[in-house]
Amino acid sequence: QVQLVESGGGLVQTGGSLRLTCAGSGSIFNFNFMGWFRQAPGKQRELVAAIGPGGSTKYADSVQGRFTISRDNAKNTVYLHMNTLEPEDTAVYYCNGPLKLGYQPGDYWGQGTQVTVSS
Q: Is 97 helix (H, G, I), strand (E, B) or coil?
């Protein structure tokens, strides 16, 4: 059974940092783009960051320069390093893949991990 499992969310103060981890099966990760999405209360789910199999990356404008996505293909793991967190980053963060054309979400989602940034 294909699974994506996120971890690393929590409560942090403005300006703080967190690292999210997404672990999954090789059939999802191998040679595929993977992404992190987030959904805040009352808002649509949005792409935060994506990473290709060779390490190419894409970021939402709102997190550019503050967040870094990385991957360890040997461990079938994707990370999201979040720095200088702001209250607007509060959301449930989801790992997804393999991404479809145009960085659209793929078939597999993790269960989500809550990130709360206090002001």
A: strand
